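Hey L., structure's done. Input below.
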Amino acid sequence: MAKDLKNIYNAKSLDSVYPKKIESLLNEGKTLIIPVHNGVHISASLEKGYSDFFKANIELKEEKESEATCGCGEKANILVYVWR
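Output:
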């Protein structure tokens, strides 16, 4: 499926949608906007356009500091689109 900007789920934090809800939302065809920390793993995923962790496509939406905490424990500093 293509990224659908008309069918967005805006997650406040990775914790708010992890893990089963992410799978469910992606299977429904939703495009997720998730705050994450741009560390080694996310950076590598963005470079190839696919996240093995989410088993989905991934793309940078914007650089944005956030109070949300990434799954790695760091403060989120980017927003990403995730879709299947």
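The beta strands are 8-10, 31-36, 50-51, 56-63, 78-83. Helices lie at 20-27, 40-48.

-- N.
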